[in-house]
Amino acid sequence: MAVEEIHAEMVSSVWKVLVAPGTPVAAGDTLVILESMKMEIPVLTERAGTVRELHVVEGEVLQEGDLIATVSDG
Questions:
Q1: Are 62 and 13 within 8 A, CB to CB?
Q2: With a threshold of 0.90, does the pTM exceed it?
Q3: Which burial class, exposed, middle or buried, applies to 42 when counting CB atoms under 10 A from its CB (0-12, 13-18, 19+)?
């Protein structure tokens, strides 16, 4: 079973969460939308699978490298 970990690429806040654990996703689907410097930044999955864990909530402030979600194909 392959697992993809999705991390924050910059300091940002979680503007909107679009998935929950157990949600099936396709490659390129948006999991959450972050906000940084008044810009909306979609966070995408690179693989099809199922959201296993979601580590963020709306309004939370993230630091670069913080874990957002894990997606597995199994």
A1: yes
A2: yes
A3: middle
CA distance 14 to 50: 20
CA Rg, the chain, in Å? 11
Position of tokens 């390129």? 28
- Which stretches of the chain drop beneath a pLDDT of 70? none
Q: Which CATH architecture has domain 3-72?
A: Beta Barrel (2.40)
3-class state of residue 60 by DSSP:
coil
Task: Report the pLDDT value the prediction gives residue 47, as an integer from 0 to 100.
Answer: 92
Q: The dihedral of CA 19, 55, 15, 9: what is its sign?
A: negative
Alpha-carbon span 29 to 12, nearest angstrom: 20
